[in-house]
Amino acid sequence: MGKVEGGGRALSLAMAVVLIFAGRAAAQTPRDALAQTPPMGWNSWNKFECNVSEELIKSVADAIALNGMKEAGYRYVVIDDCWQVTRDGDGNIVADSKRFPSGMKALADYIHADGLKLGIYSDAGAETCQGRPGSQGHEFQDALMYAKWGVDYLKYDWCKTDTRNAQEAYTTINGALLASGRPIVLSICEWGTNKPWQWGKGVGNLWRTTADISDKWQGKRNWPDGSCCELGMVDILDLQVGLESFAGPGHWNDPDMLEVGNGGMSAGEYRAHFSLWALLAAPLMAGNDVRSMTPEIREILTNKEVIAVNQDALGREGRRVRKDGDLEVWSKVLSDGSRAVILLNRGSSESEIGVRWEEIGYPNHIPAKVRDLWAHKDAGQFTGSYKTTVASHGVVMVRVAP
Ligand code: GLA
Fold first, then answer.
1. Whose CA is nearest to atom 9 of ligand 1?
2. What angle do CA 76, 278, 196 make, to 5 degrees?
3. CB neighbour class for 27 (10 Å; exposed up to 12, middle 13-18, buried from 19)
4. Other Cβ atoms within 10 Å of 201 Cβ, number
5. Ligand 1 geometric centre to CA of 285 (Å)
6. What is the pLDDT along the chain (402 residues), one digit of tens a residue?
7. Alpha-carbon distances, residue 198 vs 123, 238, 243, 304, 342 (angstroms)
8. Which of 294, 348, 295, 303 is nearest to 326 (CA)?
9. In angstroms, how far is CA 101 from the centroid of its own chain?
10. What burial class does residue 24 get, using C-beta atoms within 10 Å of its C-beta: 0-12 exposed, 13-18 middle, 19+ buried?
């Protein structure tokens, strides 16, 4: 009898534990659960545009599995626009059989065997930005097909959407993906026009905040038809200011994919780009040819101390805390109470930049350890402030820990 009563108590305790965890899970949307930290991976568009094939995707996956990127946290290998050519008589989406002769299921199996995940691309309109079939009117059919193939991530673009309502369009594809029964990360690629940060939580895991990035430090260029546009790295950075409160575990602002290693910026500029995206809790989607990058570029993309800032469990996006002309200070609160701080020099000559503790939420009288995340060295203990010289178009990124 005693035994039975004891068993009953153990059972109720177990039930209570289950209920507590269920309560916690319920506080989170099923969507949020798929990307508790910013997604990391690679996407074909920035380097290869429409020149995608199963050979490319497989060789990129193999490279990521072996070159330290997988170990550093990169997971999603995403095929952007142009993998799809038509729909069959039943309306099913059809991959380009010349470029993907083994089919998408075989490709997903291959990527999964590398310990990685497969991403794919579609569009909320009738056609994608490159004129391939979009998903409008086929959302549930497409989601089921992706699930059948073993797709893990969908980037969903916004071309040819005419008068379609953005929130409705992304809510529809979210419902379709969740109904497919396969966990598929949803990347909202709506370019920020309809303020996706205001409605994207619970709908997608990340939402583009701007028009497309281009491989340069600064400078905006309109599309050939006069519409907006390609942006330089710091132009995109400026457009993130004020959006930080909308991001959190499962739902991230996306300032677009990385250009690190594509050749248009210097190594110092790429270090700045990578540091800033990490601090913004941005998805880290490499966009270069990772099969043939230099050791210098590989070291940027796999800097574990910088990636740890991006992947910090608290999931707080960093923000700009000061702008003095070309000299800026950015800070991100981390789960252990420390701060990641970037001293950014946008000017054309080397300059000294300092950060005061009270700017990053500490009293000035306390001592704190400062560690340089690119030099991989402790800079020492400082009270009240830290300052150092920063190269033109460069950053110093540190962790400040009281
Ligand atoms: C849009 C997106 C890009 C890319 C292209 C593909 O411009 O913003 O990231 O996906 O379409 O056509």
1. 212
2. 75
3. exposed
4. 19
5. 14
6. 333 334 444 444 444 444 444 444 445 679 999 999 999 999 999 999 999 999 999 999 999 999 999 999 999 999 999 999 999 999 999 999 999 999 999 999 999 999 999 999 999 999 999 999 999 999 999 999 999 999 999 999 999 999 999 999 999 999 999 999 999 999 999 999 999 999 999 999 999 999 999 999 999 999 888 888 899 999 999 999 999 999 999 999 999 999 999 999 999 999 999 999 999 999 999 999 999 999 999 999 999 999 999 999 999 999 999 999 999 999 999 999 999 999 999 999 999 999 999 999 999 999 999 999 999 999 999 999 999 999 999 999 999 999
7. 21, 19, 10, 32, 27
8. 348
9. 30
10. exposed
State the distance from the centre of ligand 1 to the C-alpha of 100, rounded, in angstroms. Answer: 20
Burial class (CB in 10 A: 0-12, 13-18, 19+), 307: buried
> Two tokens at 362?
């500490």
Atom of ligand 1 at shortest distance to CA of 208? Answer: 8
Rounded Cα–Cα distance for residues 155 and 128 (Å): 11
Indicate the length of the chain as a whole number: 402
Is the whole model's pTM more than 0.90, yes or no? Answer: yes
From the candidates 157, 235, 254, 312, give the one annotated as an active-site residue. Answer: 157
Q: Locate the DSSP E strands across 4-89.
A: 40-43, 76-78, 84-87
For atom 12 of ligand 1, which residue has the closest CA?
129
Beta bridge partners of 382: 368
| Ligand 1 center from residue 15 Cα (angstroms) | 48
Q: Which two tokens stand for residue 317?
A: 């996006």
Residues with CB under 6 A from ligand 1: 45, 80-81, 128-130, 157, 189, 212
- Look at ligand 1, atom 4, and give the residue with the nearest C-alpha: 45
The answer to whether 212 is a known catalytic residue is: yes
CA of 290 to the centre of ligand 1 (A): 20
Relative to beta strand 76-78, strand 40-43 is parallel
Of 81, 123, 212, 215, catalytic: 212
Residue nearest to atom 1 of ligand 1 (CA): 129
Question: Which DSSP category does 37 fall into?
Answer: S
